[in-house]
Structure formats: C-alpha cells, structure tokens
Amino acid sequence: MVTGMRKQARRGAAALTAAAALAAGTPGDAAASTAVVWDNGVTTGSPDLDAPRPSLSLAKLYLGYWVLYHGAPGDKAKVEEMIRFSNDAIASALDVRYPQAIDEIARDFHLTATKRHGRWGSTSTSAHDVARFIQEIRNDPVAAPIMAGMRTAAPVAADGYLQNYGTSRLPGAQGTKFGWSDDRYTATGTVSFGNGWSAAALTYGDAGANTAEALRDIDVTNRPGPVAPPPQAPAEGPTILLGPWRLPAISVRDLLSPYLPEEFVRLIPVDWLLPVGLPR
Predict the structure, then answer these.
(1) Which pLDDT value is given to residue 120?
(2) In degrees rounded to 5, what are phi and psi of residue 82?
(3) Which residues pair with residue 53 across a beta bridge?
(4) 234-243: per-residue pLDDT in tens?
(5) Distance of CA 280 to CAs 74, 236, 243, 249, 276, Å?
(6) Cα torsion through 219, 220, 221, 225, rounded to 10
(7) What's the rounded Cα separation, in Å, for the pair 33 and 216?
(8) Minimal CA–CA distance to 210: which of 171, 165, 168, 177?
(9) In this structure, are residues 30 and 203 in contact, taking their beta carbons and an 8 Å threshold?
(10) Can you list the residues of the chain whose pLDDT is less than 50?
(11) d(Cα 146, Cα 86) in Å, to the nearest integer?
C-alpha cells in the first residue's frame, strides 16, 4: 500500500511539474522553437525563437553560472556534476541556497524571456536566450565546469533519462545540455555548441520530437555571412553662410604650413573658415 501511495505521489508530482512547465509557454503543435547564434553576430531560427517556453533542466546552466561566480567553494565544485548528470538534487539545493541566481543572470545577460517562477524547475526561457547565453559564456574560463559537463554529458542522467537526443545530433556538436519534463513527454529541450555556433531547440513533445525538429529546422553546416552594417550618411564637413548661400568650407588652420610654430597656429581661432566650393 505504501509503495502504491509513493507511486501515486510521484505521478502527481510529475503532473504538477509538467503543468508548471507548460504555464511558462503556450503549447500549440509539437513544433520546436529553435535558434542558432553564430560567432559573427548572426542569429537564425524559427519565427518564435524569442517566445518563452519551459526551460526544464536548461535552467541549470543559468543557476550553475551564477554559482561559479558567487557561490561557496563547495557549491562551485558541484556544478559540473549537476550539468553532466542533470542532477535535480544538486540543482534544488543550490536553488534554495541562491534563489536570486537565475533572475540575476537573466538581467545581466539581457535574457528577456528567462524568468524563475518560484523554483528552478519552473523557469521559463527562449531558444534564443539559451543559445545566446551559451555562445557568450563558452570561452569564459569561469564557465569551464559548465562546458566540461556539456562536453561529457552522461549517456544516462541521474534520474535514468537517456541524454542522446535533440541538438546533440547536429553535425559537429561538441557538447549538449538536455532537459525534459518530469512526465518525460510533455516538453523537451536541448542546447548544444559547435565550431562557431550555439543552437537550441525547445519542443512541446518527447525526445524523439526534439531530435526530429532540431535536425529538420536547424542548419549549422552553412555559416551565414555577417550582418551588413546600416548605410552611413556621408560625413558633413564644415560650411560657411555667405549671404543666402551655405558653402562648403575649410578651416584656416588646415591651410597653414605644417612648419609654422605651434604657438603661432594657436593664435588663429578654430572656427575661422574659408569657402571652398559651390552652394549646397
């Protein structure tokens, strides 16, 4: 009887966690929200790449990064294991000790869709937020335990879930963080990094759906060109007003010989101008 009650309690907790996760976004079909952030500043992805979705265990990335900078030494030592095995017990202990961590990281990195809703497991984020976050921290020496945990993600997580899906299947993926709802099928998420890119897929669906949509919707084999800067208006030089006309002008100082003593040059006002062209 006790065993049956425990099973019912676990199922109830899973249902509550799934419901909390879904509250962070609005499930439609199983389509993934995807984003790729490239090292040249270009971002590609689905139209809803900025939409809030359940962050699931991807929230451990934000939590772990804060702890690596601000946590106690013993807590810093737990971050790599938390990432590698997606260890909920470690995450919960750190989240209780540092409840401000996730929201402070969201503020510091301008992660507009990322917010902790009472506990780490109910955090919302977006594909763009988490992909950009990984792209920004990947070369930070302080973040080395996070990147190492992603590179050496355990085949089986602490709760027995297989960590082998989603963006980890993208060609050239070097490390991945995996996330899933407690019921194991309501929502899944992955974020990976490779040579010059970080990519995320957040799915309303199971691991198979996350994999299928990541492979269908994300292309990391064709690096886009850099974003062209906006056209700049030609620089306006000095002008002088002569009657009704405004004429291009040049500073008198610019006409002086470079061999003149500096004390002589300083005697000529900077705003002395001579017309040098036709009216504009």
Answers:
(1) 98
(2) -60, -40
(3) 125
(4) 566 788 777 7
(5) 70, 11, 13, 11, 12
(6) 100
(7) 12
(8) 165
(9) yes
(10) 1-29
(11) 11
9-63 tens-digit pLDDT: 334 433 434 444 444 444 444 578 999 999 999 999 999 999 999 999 999 999 9
Which structure tokens are listed for 189? 């998420």
Q: Can you give the pLDDT at residue 237?
A: 74
Q: Strand, coil or helix: what is 29?
A: coil
Position 272 scores a pLDDT of: 82
Calculate the alpha carbon distances from 251 to 131, 258, 272, 273 in Å. Answer: 51, 14, 6, 4
Name the amino acid, one letter, at 143: A
Which contiguous run of DSSP H or E holds residue 37? strand 33-38
Is 1 strand, coil or helix?
A: coil
pLDDT at 234: 58
Residue 252: CB partners within 8 Å, gap ≥ 6? Answer: 268, 272, 273, 274
